[in-house]
Amino acid sequence: MRLGRQHVRDGVIQLRQQKTGAVLVIPVHPELAAILEATPSEHLTFLTTRDGKPFSPAGFTNWFRDMCKEAGLPRGTSAHGLRKAACRRLAEAGCSANVIAAISGHGSLREVQRYTAAADQARMARSAIETVASAFPSTRTSSGKPV
Fold it and tell me: For the whole model, what pTM was predicted?
């Protein structure tokens, strides 16, 4: 709710977390960079109310809930869920808990692990088997007989 163009420099977003005071420096994803480039910039924050003012925390929560309802998303969908989903996607992409924490700003790896518990286990298991198969190629021929 507080982020604006003033937080983006040289392809990174730099912000101080409100809860912990920690400074995060996060590279801007190329798709987000394209969207920001194409978006008018007459406000100090990226997200604004209909009146062009920054959202209050409660105002944003209510607006987000209304937009989710309008979009037909499941009840209970929240903006906070986006953070959890981002952590899960990073885990599914093979990022370590430390790497995920560098993006999410979590101070504890235990919290990151809680957020990534819903990571796609089947996808990660497939990746593990592909890695092992690549590291230790088969010694069998296409007929299944040993070489």
Answer: 0.74
